[in-house]
C-alpha cells in the first residue's frame, strides 16, 4: 500500500488504538480521584485509558482485543508483600507436609517417601506445624515429639523436615549421626537444640541450630525450576508482584539473569538476605518503569517464630517458663544494618515477631533516622509486626515504619497464641492491625508463603473476618482489629506498591501505569463474607499480557 497523507493518518490511529480493552467490568481503580470504572484499555504494557465501556469501545482499533468481563471485578495486580519465592517452588519439589494433621501422618508420609528413594538418599520435606495437629503425639519434649518413630521408618535414609514457618527443622537419627551431633554439641547463638532428659537431641533444631543439619543444597537448575513453579503458582492465584523476603546472592544473580532476558513472569522486589551479602552486592538497583526486578532492600530476622518459641519476648513464654525466645540476629547488627541501609540507599526490612524483637527493631530504626534526619522517605519495614508491647504501637506511625503483616497468620496462630503468651498479651498487642492503623502506620499484606498458601483471597478473607475458613470463631478473633474491605485491598495494592517504591508505576489503575491487573469473579469490596473464599481468579494480566486465564467465569448466580 502507498502511504498517502490520508492512510498514513489511519495507520497512526491504528497504532494508537489499544492492544486490549476489558469492558463491562466493576473496576476498582484504588485511585481516590476516580475510584470506579467499567473498562480499562491497555497499550504496549501500560494502561492507556480507564472509563466507561462506551467511551473505551469508541477507541477500539482493528487489532484491539475486546474482553467482555460480564460484570467481573478488576483490581490492580495483587501484590504479595512478604513471601519466599524460591521456597514456594521448592515446597513443590520436596516432600510436602502442609496440611498434615498429626505426627503419625508426617511419619507415614516419610515412610512412603523412603520406599521411593535409594538407601542413603536424603529425604527433605517441609510444611509440618504441630499447632495444626488434631491429635498430640504421646511423648513430647517442649511440645514437640521425639524422632524415634520417624527414625524407625527411615533407618537408612537421613531425613530433615522443615517446619512450615522455616524456623525449626526435624531430623531423624540417621541425619543426627551423619552430622555428628552428640550430647556435647552446642547450639550456635540464635539457635537451640531440643534435648530429652538424658541430653540426647530429640530431633528438633530451632532457628540457627538448623544450620547443624545440612542436606545437599539445591543446584542452580533446581533453583531455576523452583522459580518457574513459583511463578506459575502466583499467577494462577492472581499475584502480579511479589516481595521476596530474603534470598542469597546466587539466587539474586539468577533473578538478574532472568530479568535481563525478559523471562521473569511477574514483578519481583527481591530483598538481599544478610548484611554481609548486602555489603558485597554493591549499590541498590531500584528497577524502574520498564523493569520487572528491583533489588534495593535488605532482609534480616531479629528473632524466631512464635510456634517454635523462638520469637523474642519481654517476658517468658507461659508454656515454657524461663524461655524468652531467641535473638536470631544480634540487635547490635540490626542497628548497624539500619545505619548501613540509610547511608547507602537501601530499604531495611526486619523480621520481628516477639514484643522484644519488635522493640529492638524500632529502636534500631529510630537511631538510624535520628542519625540521618536528612534522609526522608526511607520506607523501612517491620516484617510481621506480630506481638507488640502497647508502648511500641504508636511508634510505627510516629517513626513512619511500615507494618508488613500477614492476614492469614492471625487466623493460623490465634487459636493457640494464648497458650504461648497468655491471654493478656494476646489482647494487648497480638495482630493489632487497627491499633497500628490508628497510629498512622501503613499496613501491607502477604502470606509468608510457603509458610501459608500464597493465595491472596484466603489472606484477604482472614484479614477482613479474622475467622478460620470454616467461620470460627463466630465474629472473629478480636474483631475490632479487622481491616475493612477497602483497607485490606489497599494492603494488597496501592499501599503494597508504595512499600516497594513502585507507586509511580502501579498499585492503582490509572493511565500510564503498568497494565498489571487481577480480574476476579466476585467484588471483594461488596460480596458477603461467606462468599469471599469462593472468589476465582479469572485473569492475571502482567505488562498488558494475559499471564493466566481461568476456564470459566460467568457468574452462576
Ligand atoms: Zn518470612
CATH class of the largest domain: Alpha Beta
Q: Residue share in helices? A: 25-40%
Q: How many H/I helical runs?
A: 19
Average pLDDT for all residues: 94
Task: Describe the secondary-structure layout.
Elements (H helix, E strand, L loop, with lengths): L4 H12 L3 E4 L2 E3 L7 E2 L1 E5 L2 E6 L1 H5 L7 E4 L4 E4 L1 E6 L1 H9 L1 E2 L6 H14 L6 E6 L11 E2 L2 E2 L2 H6 L5 E5 L4 E4 L1 H6 L12 E5 L5 E7 L12 H17 L2 E9 L1 H12 L6 E7 L1 H7 L11 E9 L29 H14 L2 E6 L2 H17 L9 E4 L8 H7 L2 E4 L1 H15 L1 H7 L3 H6 L4 E3 L10 H10 L19 H8 L1 H5 L18 E4 L8 H4 L4 E6 L2 E5 L8
Parallel strand pairs: 1-6, 2-7, 8-17, 9-10, 10-13, 17-18, 18-19, 19-20, 20-21, 21-22, 22-23
Antiparallel strand pairs: 1-4, 2-3, 4-5, 7-24, 11-12, 13-14, 14-16, 15-16, 24-25, 25-26
Helix pairs in contact: 3-7, 10-11, 13-14, 13-16, 16-17
The protein binds zinc ion (ZN).
The site of zinc ion (ZN) has 4 residues, from loops.
Give structural attributes.
557 residues; alpha/beta; Urease, subunit C, domain 1; TIM Barrel; Diaminopimelate Epimerase, Chain A, domain 1; 8-stranded parallel beta sheet; 6-stranded mixed beta sheet; 32% helix; globular; disordered C terminus; binds zinc ion
Task: Report on this structure.
With 557 residues, the protein is of the alpha/beta class. The protein folds into three domains: 1-77 and 508-557, Urease, subunit C, domain 1 (Roll); 79-84 and 220-507, TIM Barrel (Alpha-Beta Barrel), CATH 3.20.20; 88-212, Diaminopimelate Epimerase, Chain A, domain 1, CATH 3.10.310.70. Helices cover 32% and strands 22% of the residues. The chain has 19 helices and 26 strands. Helix 3 crosses helix 7, helix 10 packs parallel to helix 11 and helix 16 runs antiparallel to helix 17. The model is unreliable at 10-14 and 553-557 (pLDDT under 50). The protein binds zinc ion (ZN). Zinc ion binds at residues 82, 84, 245, 448. The site of zinc ion (ZN) has 4 residues, from loops.
